[in-house]
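Justification of resources, computational component.

The compute hours requested in this renewal are based largely on the per-chain cost of generating structure records like the one below. Each record pairs the submitted sequence with a full structure-token output. That output is archived, and it is also reused by downstream analysis tasks.
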Amino acid sequence: MMTDVDEVEVVVAHDERATLRVGDVFLKIDADQRRADVEVEAMAMAPIPTPEVRWRRPPVLALAALPGTALGRLGEPSTASSAAWAAAGAAARTLHDAPLPPWPGRSVAEIASELDAECEWLVTNGVLPADLVVHNRRIAEAALRPWTPAFTHGDLQLTHVFVEGDEVTGVLDWSEAAPGDAMYDLATLTLGHEEHLDDVVAGYGTDVDLDVIRAWWSLRSLRGARWLVEHGFDPSSPGCEFDVLRSRM
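The structure output for this chain reads:
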């Protein structure tokens, strides 16, 4: 039971799911219980800090708030130290070295097909210039290769990584966790914050392909633009996805 709560904060809300903060508890409301199932199981398997599950009553999952603050936000300078970014890279490496979750990940063919459809939508609807889309689609090709599956978070945005000082205190939002490409997690973590890529790589260690990480920057920005627009987010904000695509030119 939660008592002495002064207010309810809407953290994120759209027509698929919503997250509310009530005191020291986050309430995640998701109509797709498959995502919630994955989140709970992935957090139990992950060898890095994750939020404590307080209770679950579908469609609501209650998670304890993590100590510290997010590593940063897309479109804003990060105030976290280089050591904190390196710690995030080390946490990603620990995760990627762990045994794979038992459910399947997405195939290269599936990702490529979705990417092509999103590129066509961007051009057909005049959202972005055709030459910008074509150029970034060409860059993205480097990510569409066979990879050795790793235990990936699947949405390792810097807002999902919490740090206190130079240490990672926990990682949020595991609903996309699956076997996948380790470089995708590193690309998601550093999207729009290329200045911290060296720190993340230093913490991660070996087996990093910088060209593939940059390819995933283009691919993620192209593939996610329509979803962002349709769910009330703005990929054209300074420092966000469209600026990432322009920086590749």
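The chain is about 40% helix and 20% strand. Residues 210-230 form the longest helix (21 residues).
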